[in-house]
Write a structure and sequence with these properties.
Structural class: alpha/beta
CATH superfamily: Response regulator
Number of strands: 5
Strand order of the largest sheet: 2-1-3-4-5
CATH class: Alpha Beta
Radius of gyration: 13 Å
Number of helices: 5
Shape: globular
Helix content: 40-55%
Length: 129
Amino acid sequence: MNHSRILIVEDEGILAMALEGMLKKSGYTVLEPVATGKGAITAVEKEQPDLVLMDIQLSGNMDGITAAEQIRFFSDVPIVYLTGHSDEVMLERARLTRPYDYLIKPVLMNKLKRCLKTTFSQHYMNKKL
């Protein structure tokens, strides 16, 4: 059983529920999903997740990239972006926040599992170094 705690930051409720189901089925502990950048920052500070699945386009005034920039000031939590868009300007902005990966929506279970396994492995190795 995997005890890693994952925060889902997603403003589409149905997608957040689907991701939560996939993660729980894979043995992860899922924290209460949030739909805004401000909610993401607060949840990371309070809950200290082991990984954040961060949608780029969020409800409210702050997108996922800006939220990730602010999270980087106080946490090295691995961030994996979720996006329905792959325009180069946005991806370059996202790259500057040092994400571990990007998942293109719709997210398939096998891709999600592989991404998380790789991310946790890379993060563990980075911490050892």
